């Protein structure tokens, strides 16, 4: 969904400001609270690592991980084979092959890559949606993991297989494991949720995710 379209939703979503904050994943809300930890966890080899994840509009994904203990920086941007030099206007067409994504800098001695993925599958987005998340549609809103090294790739593949085998979700997991670069989005997208907590799109679609993070993962919550 283009920024213009999201602005157009404001009048419709304004009533959500006073509504209860609940995740509205179709067919997956119950499963989202029962996502098990990853069986494969790679030991930390340092205090700084990077993860790149795509799961719908980057505003909400960024907002979630900004509240995760051990995460030092989250950047909204674009990931994919042609991410270099990508712009929001271009990616919004759905024809570039890129996805809206976030780049997460974290300390693996405080929060493992596997735990970041558990949060990703539990509260950050609906991994069963194909080329969409909530009101946003198109391949730029697909669910995807962009491993930054072979160890991350092993953990991601093993975790998706684990969740699929356990039938954690009522529908097949649509998350793809991809390669490609990352480029930061325009400045006005950065920290959008933190700067605009009462923006109707954020209230309706993204604040429930942050509330779920605090409730489901109190040991990893950072206010």
Shape: globular
Low-pLDDT ranges? 8-22, 24-30
Q: Indicate the mean pLDDT.
A: 89
| Count, helices | 10
Tell me the CATH superfamily. Answer: Peptide methionine sulphoxide reductase MsrA
| H/E element sequence | HHHEHEHEHEEEHEEHHH
- Work out the helicity level: 25-40%
Q: In the CATH classification, which architecture applies? A: 2-Layer Sandwich
Which strand order spans the largest sheet, edge to edge or round the barrel? 7-6-1-3-2-8
The percentage of residues in β strands lies in 15-25%
Rg (C-alpha, Å): 16 Å
CATH topology: Peptide Methionine Sulfoxide Reductase, Chain A
Instruction: Quickly give the structural class.
Output: alpha+beta
CATH top level label: Alpha Beta
SSE topology sketch:
Elements: H1 3-8, H2 10-13, H3 29-32, E1 49-55, H4 58-65, E2 71-80, H5 88-91, E3 99-106, H6 113-124, E4 132-133, E5 136-137, E6 143-146, H7 150-165, E7 176-177, E8 181-184, H8 192-195, H9 200-205, H10 207-216
Report on the structure:
- This protein has 223 residues and is α+β, with helices and mostly antiparallel strands.
- The protein has one domain (47-212): Peptide methionine sulphoxide reductase MsrA (Peptide Methionine Sulfoxide Reductase, Chain A, 2-Layer Sandwich).
- The chain is 33% helix and 17% strand.
- The strands form two sheets. It has a six-stranded mixed β-sheet, covered by helices on one side. A two-stranded antiparallel ribbon has the order 4-5.
- β6, α7 and β7 (176-177) form a beta-alpha-beta unit.
- α4 (58-65) packs across α6 (113-124) and α6 crosses α10.
- The longest helix has 16 residues, at 150-165.
- The protein is globular, with a radius of gyration of 16 Å.
- The model is unreliable at 8-22 and 24-30 (pLDDT under 50).
């Amino acid at each position: 969904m283009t920024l213009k379209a999201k602005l157009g939703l404001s009048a419709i979503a304004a009533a959500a400001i006073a509504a209860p904050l609940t995740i509205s994943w179709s067919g997956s809300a119950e499963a989202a609270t029962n996502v098990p930890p990853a069986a494969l966890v790679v030991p930390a080899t340092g205090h700084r690592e990077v993860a790149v994840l795509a799961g719908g509009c980057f505003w909400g994904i960024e907002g979630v991980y900004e509240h995760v203990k051990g995460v030092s920086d989250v950047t909204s941007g674009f990931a994919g084979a042609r991410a270099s030099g990508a712009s929001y206007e271009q990616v919004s067409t759905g024809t570039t092959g890129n996805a809206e994504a976030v780049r997460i800098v974290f300390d693996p001695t405080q929060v493992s890559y596997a735990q970041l993925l558990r949060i990703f599958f539990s509260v950050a987005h609906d991994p069963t949606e194909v080329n969409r998340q909530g009101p946003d549609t198109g391949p730029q809103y697909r669910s995807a993991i962009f491993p930054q090294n072979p160890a991350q790739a092993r953990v991601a593949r093993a975790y998706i297989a684990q969740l699929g085998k356990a039938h954690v979700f009522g529908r097949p997991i649509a998350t793809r494991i991809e390669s490609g670069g990352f480029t930061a989005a325009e400045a006005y997208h950065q920290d959008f949720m933190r700067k605009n907590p009462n923006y109707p799109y954020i209230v309706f679609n993204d604040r429930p995710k942050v509330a779920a993070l605090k409730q489901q993962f109190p040991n990893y919550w950072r206010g």
